[in-house]
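Lab manual, section 2.4: Encoding a predicted structure.

Procedure: take the sequence of the chain (301 residues), apply the prediction step described in section 2.3, and record the output as structure tokens. A sample record is shown.
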Amino acid sequence: MDADIVVVGSLNHDLTVVTPHHPRPGETVLGTRHYSDNGGKGANQAVAAARLGGDVALIGRVGDDIHGRTLIAALAEEGVLVEGIGIDEDAPTGLAVITVDAEAENTIVVSPGANSRLGQQHIEARHESIASARVLLTQLEVPVDVVAAAVLLAEGLVCLNPAPAAHLPPSILSRVDVLVPNRSELAALVGVSEPVTPHQVAEAAARLDTDASVVVTLGADGALLIADGITTHVPAPEVDAVDPTGAGDAFCGALAEALSRDLGLGAAVERAVAAGALATTAPGAQGAMPSAHQLERLLNN
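Recorded output:
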């Protein structure tokens, strides 16, 4: 199962409802339509990297159900190596319930299911693949101790998307080369109010106890790269956004794919920003991950 990019992360069945506005507590809102998609941050990021030409393997866990089998089959069809995906007989495949409002803003509730049963033993079983990868990409929809085990085995670049936000022990942060939070995740990591301006984002990132390069995703505002004492704002191209679900995952997958080809971090972030923007122009998560042709066309406009 050797690959240039190894993703350790989640696989979910996504159920999305499009609604005029997000419900308040106790409120029932009638949606205008709904649809299902393959999702999970790990699976999304693996597909994003594979569609851009990356050599990708995924380590994760699904339930012994139709959703799990569908997820594995879809990943294999995308060219992702799936030997590292285990099937759990005691937990269902993870589920994400998503609402998207008229402003193309979303809310997401995740029930981890089998993702929470990915264990350190499953990581150890794939230690050779993790050690030989040029890039390890991981997130926090699987247990933190699993992430810690994976980053300790990695010998290539380690990219961590700390989503959803959680406390990161020094044993993890010290092994990360590129940390990719959004504004709210950055705020949670350093214990401050969510930064708004690029200057506030840079100030918050400076509070992180890490030597890693930090790439803060800013949604429609692009991303802020803080590396080697230099802060660079990378703006996003203008697109007609439909659904932001999976945009951050498109960003991370594109970043990992570029880094696996030894592109510099600045160039990798530019490609990642464009990929994230493209992902907002179609509904759903994995279905919206852009192709290499789409990305090159946008970058060359």
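Check your result against the sample. The radius of gyration is 18 Å.
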